[in-house]
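Let us practice reading a record.
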Amino acid sequence: MTPDLLARLNAARAAKRPVALLTRLPDGAQLLYPEDAVPEALAAEAAAALHADKARNTALDDESWFIHPHNPPLRLIVVGAVHIAQALVPMAATLGYAVTVVDPRRAFATEERLGQQVAISGDWPDEAMTALAPDTRTAVVTLTHDPKLDDPALEVALRSPAFYIGCLGSRRTHAKRLERLREAGLTEAELEKIHAPVGLDIGAVTAPEIAVSILAQIVESRRGAASENMPRGAASETARGPKSDKT
């Protein structure tokens, strides 16, 4: 690897930009996707490797290539150290997500409640979200049911490239949320990013079940799986958290 290529690879990783290192076999010539111009077929293979997050060998036009994806780490940012978060944190960690829980209410956001697998931010949600800078490998979930906490976080997250943004609450709650976010200047295209009510429609009732439905929807969004039976934002009434129909 040349010093220039190594510097560009390290810069991309520091900036949390997904890139793939392409090595031509057996002469060892290397390119960095998508920064370098590459043939269309090779670019498609590199994009597929990044999406799958898995290295691969490919042969194109009598040339063999090894594709090594360099993706930023998977992250989950949860706003609200509530019961669902307590169930969601260990499950997400098992799937390889680095989890941060944001909640300025210090009595809720504690290691005793959330465990040692999570980073905790006691900053105000918009400040925390700005500092965390969601990227294309980041999922964001708001769980507090409190517009004073959820909305500031969403105003930042919806303007970010986060691949998933989900919000707890009933359809009525979400309609009011959309009104507030429009008044805050969010565009319709940005509001379309929200999965609400959060989670796949599996009839979840308990906090762990709701956590499962949220994680399933995050996986679906990340992997690009389109489900005809479980459309976006179609979580059941029972999977919206306590008292969701009254908020």
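A brief commentary: The chain has two domains: 3-70, 75-246.
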